[in-house]
Prior knowledge:
By secondary structure, the chain is mainly alpha-helical. The protein has a domain at 25-49. The protein has 1 helix and no strands. Keywords: Membrane, Transmembrane, Transmembrane helix.
Amino acid sequence: MLDFIGGVPKGIRTPVAGVKGREYIYLILITFLYLYILLPIFSFIKTAY
């Protein structure tokens, strides 16, 4: 029982850490995409006004 209880959190922690790492990478990629998409739009709006 103790090995089973001790092993469960380890099995839960590793996928969660991997998912968090992937989420951080996706967030960084999304921020770069927003910069590439929004900066030209803002510059266009400034030139329009």
